[in-house]
Prior knowledge:
This protein has twelve helices and eight strands. The chain is α+β, with helices and mostly antiparallel strands. Helix 2 (14-44) packs antiparallel against helix 3 (51-74) and helix 5 (128-158) runs antiparallel to helix 8.
Amino acid sequence: MTEKILHISDYVPPYLWNLIILSTAIIIGLLLKFIIIRLMVYYQQRLDYSTFKSIITHLGKPLTWFIPLLMLNLLLSWFFLDPKILPVLSKTLQIALTISFAVLLVRTISVFEDYVYHIFDIKKTDNLRERKIRTQLQFVRKFMVTLIIILTISAILLSFESMRRIGTGLITGVGVGGIIAGFAAQKSLSNLFAGFQIAFTQPIRIDDVLIVEGEWGRVEEITLTYVVVCIWDQRRLILPINYFIEKPFQNWTRISADILGTVFIYADYTLPVQAVRDELTRLLHLNALWDKRVNVLQVTDVKEHTMELRALMSASNSSQAFDLRCYVRENLVTFIQQNYPESLPKTRAIITPSDNQKQPL
Length: 361
């Protein structure tokens, strides 16, 4: 092959030959980019999932850089270049190709993630298994991306002879330095191991409903070092990941999303409890949020002036339970107002005539 190239050089100037090879690689890249962009435009108009659409979406742009760089790297020996320039160009192409390949690997993980998200749909009602898989996948994805970045940087640095010598020196003196680095990175390593523990033992999962730091919210994101909880009023509570290993918290969806809701009503002793119990049953049957498991009304306490009625109802998840409780609370109060207004809470007082009032005028 080298002899053929040298033979061609007798007829084509070196700069023109180099330009032809460079243009060939660029044209291949532009042609591939055009095809991929057209496919992306076509598939983005489709709302349904397909593996090919995911591949085009995530791998399209990285491939438009990776393939021309690969072609240039393969055709580098065909260039007619100064011996001083050739090593520099070769090293530059190798670094660019390494970075491009790393980006391609990261995007490949995204293709796999799309496939898993399609198979395990978290939008379904009973999504415990789906949330478990997604929690593990999200953590593993972040870990793999971090690992790919570290390995890519290491491969680039070790491709230089000077950096390899420095690395050898560091390994030789790793004793004291390793101990110092271990103490410095103790907190980060603790978070990392806590992340592994959460990903596989799963005290929390993506979309779990938590009561943490006195706030009600859903787990929105789990990273290698922290957890994002989306609070009910759309604020975000950011907590270190080892918080969920070291401190207690409430998980309302640990086993299932089913939950019981309570409504407390305070009324006078004259209120007929059975009438309120019948009204609760009627209200629950009219509301689709009730999952038909629990329907109880009991007198749970009596105080000096009022009695406490607790209405207990069930719903398929905490959000629906909250809405159902508000609905029952509002309608039970309206029922008492309209039918038994005399049974609303009241303060009794006995007025006796004073001594002056007892004396006749």
